[in-house]
């Protein structure tokens, strides 16, 4: 078929005359409600037992009071424990109150270690 012949029939373009109309064949993608997350809050112990701290250092960031403040330690409104004076961090279990407490000591404490005696059995 020639183009002038189709023009005299007023059928338009050759693809329309033959019924070959191309349509979009790509299916549209669906939306999703996933794909986002909240920033981590970086909770946990920041200064461990025996570490030196200065006043204002954050010792623990926590949700709730897993650890309670004792001497030389303050607690913020979000339960963050911080040093109120210079010294060394000490974690200990308060038996009468049955809770874990954090205090600041002026002197560095030795870690309690149970030494296993070496046996001379050879």
UniProtKB/TrEMBL annotation:
The keyword Cell membrane does not apply. GO terms for cellular component: mitochondrial large ribosomal subunit. GO terms for biological process: translation. GO terms for molecular function: structural constituent of ribosome. Pfam families: Ribosomal_L27. Keywords: Ribonucleoprotein, Ribosomal protein. The keyword Ribonucleoprotein applies. It comes from the Eukaryota. Coiled coil: none annotated. Gene3D superfamilies: 2.40.50.100. PANTHER family: LARGE RIBOSOMAL SUBUNIT PROTEIN BL27M (PTHR15893:SF0), RIBOSOMAL PROTEIN L27 (PTHR15893). Belongs to the bacterial ribosomal protein bL27 family. This is 50S ribosomal protein L27, chloroplastic. It comes from Saprolegnia parasitica (strain CBS 223.65).
């Amino acid at each position: 078929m020639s183009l002038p012949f189709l023009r005299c029939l007023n059928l338009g373009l050759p693809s329309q005359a033959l019924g070959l109309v191309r349509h979009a064949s790509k299916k549209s993608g669906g939306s999703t409600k996933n794909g986002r997350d909240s920033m981590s809050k970086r909770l946990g112990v920041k200064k461990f037992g025996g570490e030196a701290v200065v006043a204002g250092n954050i010792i623990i960031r926590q949700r709730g009071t897993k650890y309670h403040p004792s001497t030389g330690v303050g607690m913020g409104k979000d339960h963050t424990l911080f040093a109120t004076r210079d010294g060394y961090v000490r974690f200990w279990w308060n038996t009468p109150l049955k809770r874990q407490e954090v205090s600041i000591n002026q002197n560095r404490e030795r870690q309690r270690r149970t030494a296993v005696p070496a046996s001379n059995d050879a």
